[in-house]
Amino acid sequence: MDGRIKLSEETLKLQQYITTQEDGTELSYLEIEQATGIDMNERGKQILRRGIKRARREYSTIRGYGIKLACPETTLPILSGKIIKIDRCVKRAEKTHHTLQEQFFSQLSPEEQKQILFAGAVFGAIRIAAENGKLIYKRKNAEEAQKYNEIKIALPDIS
Length: 159
Known about the structure:
Largest sheet: 3 strands, antiparallel
Distance between the termini: 48 Å
Helix content: 55-70%
Mean pLDDT: 85
Number of strands: 3
Order of helices and strands: HEHHEEHH
C-alpha cells in the first residue's frame, strides 16, 4: 500500500510540474529530475508519461535527451506518429483477416461473408489514411530532424 501512495505522490508531482510548463517547451530528463527529485530511469519515465497524461498534455520524445511538449508546430508530427502506430496494428489485423478469409470464407453464411468483406474494407481505409499521414509526416519530419541533430545540454556557469 505504501508503494502505491508514493507512486501516486510522484505522479501528482510530475503532473503539477508539467502543468506549469509552456507549450513547446523542451525538457531534458536531467532538468525534470532536478526540478522534481524523481529519478528519470525507466520507472521514472513511466511515471512521467502518466503525469503528462493526467495533465492532459501531449508531447514528443527527443531520443536520448528528453521530451518536447506539444505546440502548433508539433501537432502534425504527433498525430502522424499515432497514425503510424495504428497502421502497424492494422497491418497485423489485415494479415489475420486475409488468412481467415482464405481458410473459412466459403464456410460462412452470406451475412457473415458481408461482414468479413466489410472488415477488409475498413482495414483498407485505415491503411490508406495511415499512408497519407506518413507522407505528411515525412515532409514535416525532414524539416524538424535538422533541429534535433544537435543535443542541447545546459552546462553550468563556472565563472
